[in-house]
Give the backbone structure.
Amino acid sequence: MKLITAIIQPIKLDDVKAALAAVGVHGITVSEANGYGRQHGHTEVYRGAEYTVDLIPKIRIEVLADDADASTLVDVIVKAAQTGTIGDGKVWVAPLDSVTRVRTGETGSAAI
Amino acid sequence: MKLITAIIQPIKLDDVKAALAAVGVHGITVSEANGYGRQHGHTEVYRGAEYTVDLIPKIRIEVLADDADASTLVDVIVKAAQTGTIGDGKVWVAPLDSVTRVRTGETGSAAI
Amino acid sequence: MKLITAIIQPIKLDDVKAALAAVGVHGITVSEANGYGRQHGHTEVYRGAEYTVDLIPKIRIEVLADDADASTLVDVIVKAAQTGTIGDGKVWVAPLDSVTRVRTGETGSAAI
Amino acid sequence: MDSGNAAWMLISASLVFLMTPGVAFFYGGMVRAKAVLNMLMLSTAALVVTGVVWTFWGWSIAYAGNDIGGIFGDPGTGFLLHDVIQVNDDGVYTSIDTNATTYPHIIDVAFQVTFAMITVALITGAIAERVKFSTWMLFVALWITFDYAPMAHMVWNGGLLSPDGAISQWIGAAAHDFAGGTVVHINAATAALVTVLIIGKRKGFGKEPIKPHNVPFVMLGAFLLWFGWFGFNAGSAFAANGTAGYAWVSTTAATSAATLGWLFTERIRTGHFTAIGAASGMVAGLVCITPAADVVSPLAAMIMGVIAGIATCCACSLKFKLGYDDSLDVVGVHGVGGFLGTVMLGFFMANTGLFEGGDWRQLAVQLVVALLAIVYSAVITGIIAFALEKTMGWRVSERDEVMGIDMADQGERAYDFAGMSTAILKEVK
Amino acid sequence: MDSGNAAWMLISASLVFLMTPGVAFFYGGMVRAKAVLNMLMLSTAALVVTGVVWTFWGWSIAYAGNDIGGIFGDPGTGFLLHDVIQVNDDGVYTSIDTNATTYPHIIDVAFQVTFAMITVALITGAIAERVKFSTWMLFVALWITFDYAPMAHMVWNGGLLSPDGAISQWIGAAAHDFAGGTVVHINAATAALVTVLIIGKRKGFGKEPIKPHNVPFVMLGAFLLWFGWFGFNAGSAFAANGTAGYAWVSTTAATSAATLGWLFTERIRTGHFTAIGAASGMVAGLVCITPAADVVSPLAAMIMGVIAGIATCCACSLKFKLGYDDSLDVVGVHGVGGFLGTVMLGFFMANTGLFEGGDWRQLAVQLVVALLAIVYSAVITGIIAFALEKTMGWRVSERDEVMGIDMADQGERAYDFAGMSTAILKEVK
Amino acid sequence: MDSGNAAWMLISASLVFLMTPGVAFFYGGMVRAKAVLNMLMLSTAALVVTGVVWTFWGWSIAYAGNDIGGIFGDPGTGFLLHDVIQVNDDGVYTSIDTNATTYPHIIDVAFQVTFAMITVALITGAIAERVKFSTWMLFVALWITFDYAPMAHMVWNGGLLSPDGAISQWIGAAAHDFAGGTVVHINAATAALVTVLIIGKRKGFGKEPIKPHNVPFVMLGAFLLWFGWFGFNAGSAFAANGTAGYAWVSTTAATSAATLGWLFTERIRTGHFTAIGAASGMVAGLVCITPAADVVSPLAAMIMGVIAGIATCCACSLKFKLGYDDSLDVVGVHGVGGFLGTVMLGFFMANTGLFEGGDWRQLAVQLVVALLAIVYSAVITGIIAFALEKTMGWRVSERDEVMGIDMADQGERAYDFAGMSTAILKEVK
Ligand SMILES: Nc1ncnc2c1ncn2[C@@H]1O[C@H](COP(=O)(O)OP(=O)(O)O)[C@@H](O)[C@H]1O
Ligand SMILES: Nc1ncnc2c1ncn2[C@@H]1O[C@H](COP(=O)(O)OP(=O)(O)O)[C@@H](O)[C@H]1O
Ligand SMILES: Nc1ncnc2c1ncn2[C@@H]1O[C@H](COP(=O)(O)OP(=O)(O)O)[C@@H](O)[C@H]1O
């Protein structure tokens, strides 16, 4: 089993979700994150002070997948999340020892 | 060393925390997440529009554990987090190369 | 490729970011988390009731790194994040199968 | 007719109106984020259901109708406000006034409806996070009709508990309730307690932590309450005169002292001066001085305030001991504060108070009136709340309560700061 | 000179002033978190640009100048308020008054500027989340000058659409607009619709969910609006008298009924009593009773309220069907509500309404005036909005809109609860 | 006795009261989320400590006591307000009035206590996020007693700096401070600067970004300030007359102009029209027109506003250059704005200003009075703040400051939107 983690631009969440659904992935976990990288932050202004905010809002998507599907799903996510501008984010794949569905206690592929 | 990650229903956090404490786990990391899966979202209504919200609030729990303890802890978490309804979530276990305690620099089992 | 995850005290974020930048790491992902461990929580008071809050705000930092750099970066993070008091947090390293840059589709070291 | 008084009573009515939104935020900030909209909606129902009921028959029962047994006025005489309005030749409505009135009579309808609104709104603090909006709307209609309007009639319109009423005559001292110690605060607190006993506790009460989700809103609510209370108390002089001015000043002095009383009590008990405590102390002081703002000296007002601040601070812990879930302390703050104010007035009232005139009768009449008000409110509220429990039912399901009543009853979520929600959009048919 | 009236008009002006902040929060809570500051700023511009324009020439065009064609007053006569102020010997300014005035004339400037502010502020709901603050400031200046001030002149200062105007004389009944059904609500809603048609929809409108980010702010705004509306309606009696008192009461009755009307409609359509619905219902009721608060009976006020509540609730879905992005329903609430109020008055007005006097002429004049106001507003607004579109342009870039207009236009983010932001601090040169 | 004036002064007192909550939110929104409750509590202490101190001896020192050296009144004459209240036969308090009073004397106590409250509350902006509530409470008591009350006496009650005082007689022109340019704004800003120099900077000041956590609250506060300021300025006419009406209008004109002045300055410097800037510009305008609202023409009011907007906008950057942590710019906004208003009045005042009458004496007296006020305030505040520093200490520990003063000093957290907190519940003993 693999865990695919993607850090993407917030406005791309809907597209990625749709793209994954199109290839039969109907479960994902989504959370908020902030990224720091090549992308330049915004300048914010408060009275006499100007701030260059270097943490930029991102979305983290996690998808559990069978070993065989992992690389396809990475491609799907990358394609859907691409805007072509700096800051589009990263996708990584980690190996897992096990996955369990809490409701039933099923493990492995059946748990996804 | 293993990292156990659990996505659970928010109202089950207290139960899981208590169950882990009962088996001697006194450290966990908790964060907010949103899940998309089989569970149906709520319908929200704003003036002329109705929304079916498909991202449902979840809690993510992470537990660092010795290799030997991992599968027991998964069972403990699954049992404590179960409500038996769709949306109870997933638990997965990932292998780690190392764990370090920031305060002391200790690594391995001593760091947990 | 490795994924380094650090749970640290919120006030140490700036220091860790600076320390990583000093060794040439210019990309990280940051999110909010809450920790439960040895560190004692605050007591909060609301009218007739007193609460001991045992979830303490923490920051999660994730850094993608080449296999060779991982242990150095852990040291850098540990040093920068240390205050020496209970609750300083943990750093762990997980192996990855792949890393992809969304913008370009590059993988491996080139993606970081 | 005095236009200065008219101006003052118009603005006083508006100020008292603003107190219900004040209560909405005071309470709304204290509940959990998943229940704040329901909380705001309960106060909204207090505004709009009362607004309709009062126009139809509430005004008549309380003030316009012919007295029936010293308990209430007939609902017919002032039905739809017929007794106070007339149409000019040009089609414009105006007030029916006598030579005696010092401001247009119709303004009384305005001023008094706001008192009805705030009184029933106070009850919502006790039943937070768990009751259906539909049941609550019906409760408001019934409670204004059968509890509030008669109570106002009894105390303020020459009824049984009024200065000219049977009780006062029997005891030989004129019961004094300047702006609503009995009618508003004791009444609402009694109703709150009875209702809570019928509907039961929130899941997790006394076990899980149930913390305020937005303390600045609590402060905002308290500030709006203090601001509105100037209309409540100084407006109860029914004229822009020296007594109104004095009530403004004594209200501020007592409230200031009560806030300090609460804060120092809390500091001793918990080591902190809390914001919730400051907000609560303000309200306790405002409540306590309400019946007495025109008749106690500045020093007495501050002494009453300090005592109310200390007493209500301690009283709020009682619910955990006694095991009833008066969620936001309507009993602890309004019940204890209102009772203390009503009774302490028996000690401190100029001329007739025990400490001032040496006569126990003022104290006695205050006590008796307060107790009778409690009995009346408990009986009437008990009947209404119990009937609703057996018919519509009060509470949402336990699952809905745990997941959040806002989503279940209002179909809404209060906040969306992340803006991350993905959802499928459908038009409402 | 009557100091009671002066006191009431001073406070009424202040209350109406507070309505614009009320609108700011009512709208601000309804947009997404990334656009709330822009929303608050649009209302701020309504305050401050109007404040300057009115002082220079707005007052003159609307009220002080010599009538030109029944459409507007000349801007010179009351330029910089020269017609209403004078300096005492000690250097202190005061009002120029005649024997006829019942309160100092300068207070009219205060009262009327607040009407101008709130009217233009209402439009902002339609253009939420996408327009440049700079273009909006210019729009306010032009719109107050060429639309609002003439409209006020026409309806309230003896112009074409006034009770003494050509239209009323031709039809043979005096058009009635107590506090601004045409001047404020129909006018703002028409302008909103025209502007929206010119500037276009938000990205994702009708497809993606666009949800309110802070519903308690919506409620806060609605409560402040109701509170301020006491000055709006009861202040429009221009005296602290029985009619002011009656307007207060009828406003409350109609608003209460409208809120219930909206809530029950919504319950039937969606199964929920929502907080946004309650807030919207309040505003709908306030809007509807505005032109009629002095001339309809309490029962008629409540009937009008219920009808307005139901109708506006249904009207808000129309934009999805018709495909224009009136983002926060200025047309649905203020347009429909204002039109209904203006026209229903033709049925319910005491003495002259169709149901009261059996005469169709009041209804006819109301309808004709409403339609003429729509035409005037549509033409003038269309010219202004189109000219701005072709010159400065209205909208921020699509990318800025998606990322959040607050960051792009205001350079700020509304909230930072986590306090996690790391940033590089630079002084502004 | 004039009930219209009484009504207006009662409501003006209530409006000015609301300014302190306005300040609380204006400042509260500008601090970080971890310090908002402490910020709100500092304003709360300004209300309640002043409420008590004023009732005991503050009123007497400022207004009721016999003049001592032109500096203050004796605290005994009006102790506990004995000089202004009396009891009627029926036990009801009312005001002691002479034939000369145009409204009940007791209302002056109400009106003036609100000025004392807001003045000391203004100081809190400078010391945000780091001071102990307990020390601040004591500061309020001492500062009202030794600084504010004497200052009010000197300027407004015939003392040294008053129009009839020694300075004015010496220079030969009557110093003018309509509503508090010196007493309120210069005074508070001077005190703020002195206190900040004694207590020191926040950790990270000038290095780390310290951003507002809730900009809508800042706007809410600014709106409430503007609303309340109608009582502040128009109420300072002490009558519901043409001057009150004019002060309302000139206040609005100046504030509008100042907001635009700030916004355009900011646009040039940073490229954005910010919401914090709009809120700050409003306050700057309100401050600047305060001393002059009754004596400058509409055009002069707007010119003063624009200048104040530009100047305060630029002044706020100074603290970074000069290295003192006036956290929320009390000096930049109130100091600069108040000083400019007080001095520009010397140019623009009708009849006697340099531009109007060609005489330099009005300008001279304004300057001298402003400087003397600064000296008095600096010395007294310095002594008080230094004494507190050496005894109780002002600041919480650095660790508590970094972790958040709310948790350390108030024992509370302002927000809990996630509701995720698990905790162990204990009853308070
Ligand atoms: N080394 C890294 N480790 C973890 N996350 C990273 C790393 N580098 C970048 N990221 C994440 O990816 C996001 C995009 O990276 P950035 O360098 O801005 O653009 P791009 O990936 O298009 O070159 C960042 O905001 C951050 O969340
Ligand atoms: N493939 C997946 N990858 C990551 N997270 C998933 C996946 N499927 C489900 N989840 C997470 O588990 C939660 C529960 O899943 P769901 O399908 O609703 O119910 P159940 O697990 O009971 O069948 C989801 O809300 C989501 O957070
Ligand atoms: N077993 C664990 N699994 C996951 N996270 C842990 C674990 N133990 C501790 N943590 C995280 O590390 C943080 C610090 O741990 P704590 O025991 O308080 O102090 P220390 O690491 O200094 O001994 C916790 O708040 C929690 O976020």
